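Fold these two proteins, one after the other.
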Amino acid sequence: LALKNLGHIGRLGAWSEMAALKNCVSITFVNTSGFGILMAPHGGTDRRLSANPIAIGVPIENNDYLVLDMATSIIAEGKIKVAKNKKIKLPEEYLLDGYGNPTNDPEKFYSEPLGSIIPFGGHKGFGLAFMVDILSGSLTGGNSSHPENQNAHTVINNTLAIIIDIENIVSNQYLQDDVNRLTQWVKDSPKAKGFNEILLPGEIEKRTKNERLKEGIPLDDQTILDLKIIAEKVGMKNVEEEIKSLLNLS
């Protein structure tokens, strides 16, 4: 399934979840067609690619699913913005400043000259990011992440999705049983120092979702202020109280 010139499609893993609930395996690639360029190539010093995420979803027993949803950059920009708002450093040197020097300071990502994010896994992450750009941008006809195209200054997503009907290959029962065996085998590995358990793709996100549904979404002061300013521009009153009520915050 090749789609081009879309608006922002949101969290990529959500589409994998929907496919899994229809008993399909999915592999999805996305680029931004020249807008939202954030990541330096391995060995480069400035922004040349977007975060170019990939998502893989597999249905499992009990109407559940495993979903890998990840950017090919070592960190998502949203986490950089959160660190900037909280005025804290990143845990590692995930960024390059505008002069190509490694840094853990989120301020330098947004300061002129703009900084960039490095790919995860060095040359391997960069290689995957580059191929994602080709599959989702060039192959769909929606353009890759070079700035010399008509959509370079617009939020445009291009997507290539591979959807697999399991029953055309193996039985559902076989897939579930084999995934269960693999899961048990992997989770039974002796734990490294500092680890209490081995988590599968998507397990942290599921736990976080359940926690947020129960306890609300924590927001830093800067984000609340930003929401308040936007809300007041469209005529909302008592904005901070409304935000806290909606997010179940005390």
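Now the second one:
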Amino acid sequence: MSQPETITYNSIDRTQLLRDRARQVGLLSLRQICQQAGVSERQLRYLRRGQCDRLRVETLQRLARVLEIPTTDLLAEFASGRESASEPAVLQEPDRVSRPEPNVADMQRECQILQQQLLRQHAELQKNFQRTSLHLLEPWLRQWPSAIAGVQRNPELPAARLLPLTAPIDNLLRSWEVESIAAVGSELPYDPQWHQLLEGTAAPGDRVRVRYAGYRWGDKLLFRAQVGPVD
């Protein structure tokens, strides 16, 4: 009785094996394999030559899906020098450059530096926000204390009902370390550093009356209190 013919494949060229696998899934040419798997002819040539270590894992997985076999079987059949799946191929990915493991102490120092930079940036952004907000509030800051003084002199004015509504603004200013230089209507010695003379003349130390409020922002002058000579 004659023995069935055994087909053997060249140990270097896997082209015929690849064609046989392709025909089993209805692909009639190598170009169709490339199109279905989304690989280049060069990448397919590596597979035909058994150079699976020249291919990325993702490329091998796409080829295995198109040929409808597990990736391990693909490696067992096509990897050079591999005759069975029990000897898995060691894949190399030449496009990825190995890098030394980072030093933990260096990473901790860099993290601390970044945290300090973020804290400084946060503080600076907060100051910029406050500076812009105070600039926008300047008309209210100047006029509102004068309105309060008028209402306090005549509590029967309807505006007296509005005074409690200003408490949130006062709280906001206090949280920003903004404080009035002097109360509207108060008399005090003229100090050009803190006072702006609206009319007439006054020498430092002369008695003046505050007409519009001025403010400090922490240890800085925000704007001077506007004053006039005492009659």
